[in-house]
Amino acid sequence: MLYLASKSPRRRQLLAQLGYRFSCLDVDVPEVRAPSESPQEYVVRVALEKARAGLALRADEDPDAVVLGADTEVVLDDQVFGKPVDARDAAAMLRRLSGRSHEVITSVWLVDAGREMHAVNRTQVRMAPLSPPQIEAYLACGEAFGKAGAYAIQGRAAAFVAHLSGSHSGVMGLPLHETAGLLSRFGIEPSDSSS
User: Among 159, 163, 149, 181, which Cα is nearest to 20's?
Assistant: First the structure.
């Protein structure tokens, strides 16, 4: 059985879009970057911890469990922009991203009782310059919260993206090409319906 260790509705939607049947697991993994970690090392570690935490929840009841864990972070000048803690934090992130290019790193892990495989997607995103009224209006719509970098590329913030080089779905939180490749390597194929 395939499990998605994520609270993200976007990851659920993207995995379902590929046609896989899966169940969701609610895992809680601390997302704190160690001082010595590069942004990519951090994202890869957190995604692996999510997958392993999910496997720990299911291993006793389902010895054939395969768990997918993912993490996505926005990186600018070697600083990781996670989810904003409040409106002030979100506004500060958007001001920093305004008119600049940043990188979105997503790591995906698949784990089962005997295997662990992963893929990393790196996407370059250039934001248009954002005025204070644009930032204020965006914060008012509520989309910025719970999103790395304080924006949702699949929502209103799509209008802020001047250029993207890489994976749109990776910026959303689950790079579909890489995810499908990992699942295929595990022998998991799409089905007619997904849950």
Answer: 181
pLDDT category of residue 161 using cuts at 50, 70 and 90: very high
19-72 pLDDT per residue, tens: 999 999 999 999 899 999 999 999 999 999 999 999 999 978 999 999 999 999
118 phi-psi bin (left φ>0, alpha ψ -120 to 50, beta other)? beta
Backbone dihedral region of 166: left (phi > 0), alpha (psi from -120 to 50 degrees) or beta? left
Is-catalytic flag, 26? Answer: no
Q: What is the pLDDT of residues 80-98, one digit of tens each?
A: 999 999 999 999 999 999 9
For residues 127 and 162, the answer to whether their CB atoms sit within 8 Å is yes
Distance CA 172, CA 193 (A): 22
Give me the amino acid identity at 11. Answer: R
Which residue in the list 28, 60, 71, 78 is annotated as catalytic? Answer: 71
